[in-house]
Automatic annotation (TrEMBL):
CDD domains for this protein: TlpA_like_family
Chief localization: other
GO molecular function annotation: oxidoreductase activity
The name this protein goes by in its record: Thioredoxin domain-containing protein
Protein's UniProt keywords contain Ribonucleoprotein: no
Source superkingdom: Bacteria
Localization per Swiss-Prot or TrEMBL: Cell envelope
One GO process term, biological-process aspect: cytochrome complex assembly
Organism, as annotated: Pararcticibacter amylolyticus
Length: 587
């Protein structure tokens, strides 16, 4: 099933990197590396990458370790990553890492090279690529760069590109240093669309969403034929105004059908919509209206939706994709056929035979809709064999890990058939939750707002929604409106919402983001190298935990969006409405 997982990974990555302002910093996707000697550690990590070239964590760990163990040998790092990109052409990550390594390799202290690049900038001040070569050679972190660009801005006062080039270097680093230079660029030339667009990206990190919308509207006005700006404007409303997000996304597909942003808009809308009809419409439009090479990354997600809603149509899609020699679709076709056969046997009142077939279905972990549909169908088949208790237990096992309204309805129904009333089912749920609860590793972290620090113990008696984030993290920002939708329903309840910023270089963004965004979380500052224990985010963001009133982790490894916002509410309700004996439990 590795091929299927890889197909779903492709769709996930396509959606992830097309989201509004998502600049996923590889620096925050790290694993803790054992404390072993440098070269030995590097060799071990190199082997890990080559054993699994699709593991982004391993690649990042190698990248970081190389810079630590072999400083000054960045060209060698770039050469190694380039070799991997040739050796493993199907890996999605090496090109991005090669670009990063190449920037580091471009840095130099050779005065002759620097003088040549400096003269190239003076000869072509409106060339972004020339500026980028010079800035990368000097390094945007070198204090000398500020003085040099102050001189260039005076030397070329009519060129918006001079200030924008430096701003772009800081934008790419997700640095607060970008904004002054972006403002200088638009002051020099109000029709300079890239700078308006950069101001929008930067404002997302400051939490200035309304001002940011004004900026991107100015980018659109300055360059109305650029579909990127239209696309980013549409996605800026995701989670904040879903109707507008939907309307604008469809408009992009209509207005820019030849652009890659047409299919990106539909794919992202499908992945972020809580409306099943809209989701299906998006995937069908991708299937019907776009060349297969553009539609294919989204078809596995469409297959997943169809498998839950219309398995016969999912089978037709798999046959079509297989006929086009798309990798992995033979396996997906097999899964669809098992699914259809199982449902047919159910319709023929042969639940035992249906179970035998359904047990052969092996879906990817990314098949969210298909997996829940399969689980419910298997529970139904089990129930119809007369084993109500087994159907109940099957759903209970999953419900206490990932509760959902659909599973809840079935769970209580099978519980009733098993002789359990509502109170007995609830008691079983809390017995299971208590069994899986783990005392959260204590923390004490500095507050960004107010004096002092906050500790896990400070939240005793409250349910705690804990998220790891950073201001430049698009997926974090995309998730926050849905967190806020849930949290605001409990204003008078003991529920706390805390966000730990994991990128210290973005500290200057944190307080403005909190105050301007309207999100009610309490921001705390991470301490590098601290022992996080079982609250370890493994360097990633977002990473979420739900902790009960007694400081125990009950739910983790969940992501919230429009489709499953209700799941978070159900998790919170389970903890807030827990019986006294549960809240008094200690693990």
């Amino acid at each position: 099933m590795k091929v299927i997982a890889k197909l779903y990974s492709a769709a996930l990555i396509a959606a992830l990197f097309s989201t509004p302002g998502i600049e996923v910093s590889a620096q925050v996707l790290q694993k803790n590396v054992p404390a072993i000697p440098g070269e030995a550690k590097l060799a071990k990590l190199k082997s890990a990458v080559e054993a699994n070239p699709d593991d982004m964590d391993s690649i990042q760990a190698y990248y970081d370790a190389f810079l630590e163990v072999r400083p000054g040998q960045e060209k060698e790092l770039a050469a190694q990553i380039k070799a991997w990109s040739v050796q493993f052409p199907s890996s999605y990550y090496f090109p991005a890492y090669l670009k990063r390594a190449a920037k580091l390799a471009a840095r130099t202290t050779d005065p002759e090279i620097l003088e040549g690049l400096k003269k190239a900038v003076e000869a072509a001040p409106d060339s972004l690529s020339v500026h980028q070569a010079y800035i990368e050679a000097v390094s945007p972190d070198n204090p000398e760069i500020f003085a040099r660009y102050d001189e260039l801005m005076k030397e070329f006062p009519q060129s918006a590109m001079v200030s924008y080039a430096l701003a772009k270097a800081y934008l790419d680093k997700e640095s607060p240093k970008a904004k002054p230079y972006l403002l200088k660029a638009v002051a020099t030339n109000p029709q300079f669309a890239p700078a308006w667009y950069g101001l929008w990206i930067d404002d997302l990190r400051w939490g200035n969403f309304e001002e940011g919308c004004e900026y991107i509207r100015k980018a659109i006005a300055a360059d109305p034929t650029n579909p990127l700006y239209q696309y980013r404007y549409a996605t800026s409303f995701m989670g904040l105004d879903q109707e507008k997000f939907t309307d604008l996304s469809f408009k992009i597909a209509r207005d820019f059908p030849e652009s890659e942003y047409a299919d990106r808009a539909l794919g992202y809308l499908a992945s972020c919509s809580g409306n099943a009809e809209i989701r299906t419409k998006c995937y069908q439009m991708l299937h019907d209206n776009f060349p297969m090479e553009r539609a294919e990354p989204y078809m596995t997600s469409y297959f997943d939706v169809l498998l839950a809603e219309n398995p016969e149509k999912a089978r037709e899609l798999a046959i079509e994709m297989k006929s086009k020699n798309s990798d992995g679709w033979g396996d997906l076709l097999t899964q669809a056929e098992y699914f259809i056969r199982g449902r047919k046997l159910m319709d023929q009142s042969q639940p035992a035979e249906a179970l035998t077939v359904l047990n052969k279905v092996k879906l990817s972990q990314y098949s969210a809709y298909g997996n829940e549909s399969l689980l419910r169908l298997m529970a139904e088949a089990t129930d119809k064999t007369g084993d109500h208790q087994a159907a109940y237990a099957m759903l209970m096992k999953v419900f206490v890990k990932e509760p959902s309204p659909a599973l809840s309805r079935d769970l209580y129904a099978y519980g009733l058939k098993s002789g359990k009333d509502q109170a007995a089912v609830k008691a079983d749920i809390y017995t299971r939750l208590n069994a899986q609860a783990k005392a959260a590793t204590p923390f004490t972290l500095k507050k960004y707002i107010g004096e002092g620090s906050a500790s896990l113990a400070d939240y005793k008696g409250k349910v705690l929604l804990l998220t790891y984030w950073f201001p430049g993290c698009g997926p974090c920002r995309a998730e926050m409106p849905f967190f806020e939708n849930v949290v605001k329903q409990y204003k008078s309840k003991p529920l706390a919402y805390v966000g730990i910023n994991i990128v210290a270089e973005q500290n200057d963004y944190v307080i403005p983001f909190h105050n301007s965004s309207g999100f009610s979380f309490t921001p705390l500052e991470e301490v590098k190298g601290r022992d996080k224990g079982n609250l370890d985010n493994k360097g990633a963001a977002p990473a979420n935990f739900l902790i009960d009133q007694n400081g125990r982790i009950i739910f983790s490894d969940f992501l919230i969006h429009a489709e499953n916002e209700g799941h978070l509410k159900m998790m919170v309700d389970l903890l807030l409405e827990a019986p006294a004996e549960f809240t008094k439990q200690k693990s």
